[in-house]
Amino acid sequence: MTMRTTLDVLQSVRVPIVAIVLALSASGRAVAADATTGMIVGRVVGAQGRAPVPGTEIVAASAAGRYRARGGSDGRFTLVGVTPDTYTVTISANGFAPLIVAALTVPPGASVRVDAALVPSLREIGRVGARPAPDGVEFERTEDVFHVGGERARGLAAASSSGLGTYTQGTVQAAVAAVPGVQQDQFANVILQGGKVQDTVFSFDGVPVPQALIAEPGGNVVGAQLATTGTRWTTVTTGGFSGSSNQGLSGVIDQIPATGGFPAVTTVEIGTGVSTNARSVEVESRWATPTLRQRYALDVRAANEQIAYGDGHTFYPAEAGTYGLALAHRATWSAAGNAHVRVRRDDLSVSLLAGAAAYDQYATPFAGQTYGAFDGANGSYPGEPSPAAAVTTPSRVRGTYAVEKIADLRSYDHATMSLQLYGSQYGAHTAAPYFDDLSFPSGVVSYFGGQNSALFGAGLDVQNVASERHELRYGGDLRRQTSLIDQLVPTFDEHVTAQPVLGSYLAYASDRWTPSTGRSLTATLRATGTRVVRSDGNRYSVSALDPHLGFNLRLSGTLGVFASFDRTTQAPNPLETERNDAAAPARFAPLAPESGTTYEAALEQQGLLRARITYFAKSETNLVDVLPADFRSALAAGTRPSGVGIPTNAGSLRVRGLEFALSGGALTVSATYLRGMSSSAAQFGYSNLNAPAVAAGHRFPLGYAPDLSAVASYAARIGARITVTPSLSYQSGYPYGNGTKVWIFDPHTGRPAHVPNDNYVNRGYNYCFLRDPAKPYDAATNPYIGTLGTPEGDDPNTLRSTPRLLASLHVRAGLGRKAALVVDIVNLFADAAPTAYQGNPYLIGPPGYGGGDPAYAAAYGKAYNGAYALGNGVPTNDGRTPAVPWRYGTAGYVPSSYPNARAVTMRLQVQR
Q1: Helical segments of 663-707, H only
Q2: Is-same-fold flag (4-127; 145-640+659-735)?
């Protein structure tokens, strides 16, 4: 969606009959979600506003770029390939007074329109100020696109809708936390319009970065938290978008780097933690030749910090395994740089990003822990000196990422052509003597493994605005992605490997037709295809042709509406196409692409106060769920599916919601409300609830996003040098709960059945407790003797945690002309504390059960091939000895949330 603003210029006292009407509008839009430059287009007419003024000269200048164009005989002009920045535009013609448009902001991927009416030449110069885009969320008008600019694009002080402000600081998650349509789950993963984490594509300077789930043990913790080093803009495209070489079922988040300018600016920033142990240093330098034919930028950052949750020094180690979040310390570095050289019509550029981080977990190792406690029957933890050796190193996750791009942007009078060659990589390695995988009866496990992925590609994009009524964009992209995973779980002698290669192409063509001022229609077709080659020699191909339609209507000078339809097809992820488990081999099954359809409609008000409300409806089908290998054949035969789970196309997702954005002066407000249903009971992992529910056509409430989240901030100036920005973030509460019923395959008929969730059907993770869990329910002989006692519905995720309102504070104080002190306080009032877990997987009896009941001991002993004598809530690997030296308590459910403890950091910035 593009920003449209109309500024009426008052008469000058020196020129009483002047009729200068300047319409600043962005009636173009970000056709390509990964577009990294913008355009300035417009038409110049005479004082009466009708006759075109031919031969005008238009010059746009800023510290980062200078662009010149000459208008045609029809008064039209186009400045193409414009580096995103704030410009002064001068429009001049023989016989007319020059007109200067000051502070015109050109976001990445946008076409900003300047329609000007000139007056006869007098001694005075017509001048008008255009309100620049704020350093915050800026939205466009024909597509659901948001721009985060300036300081907020760095993500150093943005309020986090998940409450994990310190954990996300300096990452893309923090940069987009206040964007409408963006929500974050309990672990700060970005959720766009209710889709899954993997539905969102992250890219840097238009180059996609391969991702692995942060939630998976050993997952890509670093790549999922791309640093904002060197970033000037972050563009968020949610829902439909008309043409792009990057696409995702939920959208694309692209970080646009800052480029060099003249005069040169170098900033040194040193940060320290006041309430937590944190140290950081960053050096950013941007320079250029006086003619701006050569521009350079470099930004390097290093940091070491304690990540303080809850009370600031403890956390719940149970979350360390499946979710990979219980991280106590982080050491990281990142570097970004780019160089641009202009040779006649060509802008040749090189962009680089690289980074690495290491995370240590809370509470490991604990006293007395030995490697042998987590060995399997046939294997041991890699590198252990002996089974009796004490663990002396913490569980540690390490990761790296890198992006490289070479590009040539050629500019013509009314068109640009961009050719780029690029590569991106991530790597992750985990050595964890202790992981708790939160599943009964697995207990505590050890983990060792790594994964990586490398993507290389070439793309061509063309933009042509030669016609006043038609704006054409077309292009294509070729990619090759190699991936590797090698995971070992010594506790269970489990070894998982995969090494698929995916080759893909994308081609798109888009036309934006503008029959008259204030009306436009966009139509796009995208053709995609992917060739999957597995390491076992199996291979197959998938392809699709996807349409997009978008309609834009201006109702008045500042009020407009838009509606769009978008269909997106996404090939299977590399680690979905292949997963080889040595302990449980599965047969090969090709996967079809996932597909999604999004409808959006918005009403927006532009001007000094900008507001927009958007309704969206999302439907995804053919989603990949992990189901029994014989799922389809067993259902066709009327038998019960069984066997190891493999990725299978069977899932679906339905989401409805509203986005709201308000920006005016120092105030910004954003909010997202959504309700959704998914075939997957949980966002991550392999849930045994999914297969029978999918067979029954049932969908569960979304279990990873609150119904409502909102962020508001106000930047108040105190004097000339101090700005105080308080912010509030609100969440209605995360969904949680096990549900009073579960879906199973009836053991007699093989058909899906909805039955009470008791500890006969679902041991260890249940709602109802039988007198004898070894026998099925019988009202007379084996009644229920207890429940969790919460007002829960049939499905999981029907409860909501307590709503949370978090306050943060950002203060910037100028210290002279070239220095500033920045103070950030997260969880200002320290009134929020973490909760332990979504459900207690070790709840083997009614709340308060202390162990010793013969019926319970016998029933749960079967899971361990022996007697179970432990009390309620005791993690174990063998049913007889505790695996860790703590108890999880006797509560049935504790909703999951992890706000930061109050954290105070200071940063000193010095500029030269």
Answers
A1: 690-695
A2: no
